[in-house]
Amino acid sequence: MPLADGTALATAAVPPTGGPYAYTTVRADLPTPPAGVRDLHLTLRGGGLRLARLGFSG
């Protein structure tokens, strides 16, 4: 999740799950969440990644 200047706020590595329908939960904590309303840019890198759900808590 990069800031406007390209600085990533958080990264998360997705471990191999064993198949295209074997899902896992990955969390990325923000040490200092940005204030105010912001745009979120999510980048998935690597072959075979599938995003089933994106959630927020806090």
Short description:
This protein is mostly loops and 58 residues long.
Structure characterization notes:
With 58 residues, the protein is largely without helices or strands. The radius of gyration is 13 Å and the shape is elongated.
User: For the CA atoms, what is the radius of gyration?
Assistant: 13 Å
Number of helices: 0
Which sheet architecture does the biggest sheet show? none
- Strand share of the residues? under 5%
Annotate the secondary structure layout.
Blueprint: no helix or strand
List the main descriptive attributes of the protein structure presented here.
0% strand, 58 residues, elongated, little secondary structure
